[in-house]
Write a structure and sequence with these properties.
Blueprint lengths: L1 E9 L4 H15 L5 E6 L7 E8 L2 H12 L13 E9 L5 H9 L2
Antiparallel strand pairs: 1-3, 1-4, 2-3
Length: 107
């Protein structure tokens, strides 16, 4: 399992419009795979939206992103100029993570 963590640095005050754009576009993107998380920052680096997508492996990520990229409703229609920077990272969970998660989910 891998996770893609995408962070958007936005202009001050742009988070509400960006979240609205995500809300409109997300059902179209989730036809290809579900979102794992979507947050915005309150403390620390402000004016950020972070969204996380889980994939079986990098090949699955590539295939899903190619398919979603052909969808006219994705990516979200964030107002041009409001995205100052975008960063994408691929994360892998710790070796104990799945075992720990399954144990807590069964309680």
């Amino acid at each position: 399992m891998i996770y893609e963590v995408r962070t958007y640095d936005l202009k001050a005050g742009a988070v509400p419009q960006a979240e609205e754009a995500f809300a409109e576009a997300l059902p179209h993107r989730e036809k290809y795979s579900p979102i794992a998380a979507l947050w915005h920052t309150e403390i620390g680096p402000l004016n950020q939206i972070i969204h996380v997508w889980g994939y079986k492996d990098i090949d699955e990520r590539t295939k899903i992103r190619e398919a979603a990229g052909k969808d006219p409703n994705w990516p979200p229609k964030i107002t041009p100029g409001n995205i100052l920077n975008m960063n994408s990272e691929i994360w892998t969970p710790g070796s104990f993570y799945e075992r720990t998660w399954r144990a807590s989910a069964s309680r």
